[in-house]
Amino acid sequence: MRILFLGDIVGPSGCEAVRKNLQDQIKINKINFVIVNGENSADQGVGITEKISKDFFNCGVDVITTGNHVWDQKEAIDYINKEKRLLRPYNLISPSPGKGFEIFSSKNGYKVAVLNLMGNIFMKKCNDVFDAAKDFISKNKLKKDFDFLIVDFHGEITSEKMAIGHFFDGKASLVVGTHTHVPTNDARILNFGTAYQTDAGMCGDYNSVIGMNKENSLNKFLKKDSKKHFPSTGEASLSGVIIDCDIETGLAKNIKTFIYGGDLVNTN
Ligand SMILES: [Fe+2]
């Protein structure tokens, strides 16, 4: 079982790279299931719309996760209740529309569970992520309730992400971070069989400041005249991980970083 996870898709150039390349990459890499983080995919680089979600599903995406920007395009508040393939962080303060966890059927007949968590440090206020993870794991078990479990941990700091990776070790197929828009070079299998990478990186133009126009972003830091942040428009790199999972255990046999197109050094 081979699963592709792509990090935060940023703005029109990130969406274009998905439209242009994802179907080919699914075939070339023999991918059975695709998850993307779409919370920065709208034209402004924040939030997600119904049209963009549908485009992703039409390109072969099975599930879209999000994070702190999930509601930045207001239509998502209604749309998420109609579309179970769009998730928001599980530990948002209730009541919040939508769901943070769902079990999906893969085209090759397996139950793939996806859990979307959000960190607490330097992030918008949400419920304690370790309490939420403990509660989740007491109610949901790999191989009993689903064949594979993918955890998107949307967070700012590496220590919190690494700790949640160890928390889920042996209980999830993959724990991967999102939100920082920079891929980390620490893909590995943890001691008890969970694949892990601290951040998947973004699907966006890396000739930028985390996907946003670099001149405008720099001007903000220099306290010069600047506009509201807007996405950079150069060719995007797709960035994420591919994992191979054992069908008997649901755990990972292999993980590799996946980078395709744009300015980043490509992995394949
Ligand atoms: Fe984010």
Description:
The protein is an alpha/beta fold. The chain has one domain (2-260): 4-Layer Sandwich (Purple Acid Phosphatase, chain A, domain 2), CATH 3.60.21. Helices cover 24% and strands 22% of the residues. The chain has six helices and eleven strands. Strands 4-5-6-7-9-8 form a six-stranded mixed sheet, with helices on one face. A five-stranded mixed sheet has the order 3-2-1-10-11. Strand 1, helix 1 (11-28) and strand 2 (33-37) form a beta-alpha-beta unit. The chain is globular, with a radius of gyration of 17 Å. The structure holds fe (ii) ion. Fe (ii) ion (FE2) is lined by residues 39, 67-69, 154, 179.
Brief sketch in words of this structure:
By secondary structure, the chain is of the alpha/beta class.
CATH class: Alpha Beta
Mean pLDDT reading:
98
Whole-number total of structural domains: 1
CATH homologous superfamily designation: Metallo-dependent phosphatases
Oligomeric organization of the protein chains: single chain
Structural category is alpha/beta
| CATH architect. name | 4-Layer Sandwich
Kindly state the number of beta strands.
Answer: 11
**CATH topology heading:** Purple Acid Phosphatase, chain A, domain 2
The rounded Rg comes to 17 Å
Query: Beta-strand percentage?
Result: 15-25%
Shape: globular
Spatial arrangement of strands, main beta sheet: 4-5-6-7-9-8
Q: What is the CA-CA span between the terminal residues? A: 19 Å
Largest β-sheet summary: 6 strands, mixed
Q: What proportion of the residues is helical, as a percent range?
A: 10-25%
* Tally of DSSP helical segments: 6
Could you state the order of secondary-structure elements as H and E? EHEHEHEEHEHEEEHEE
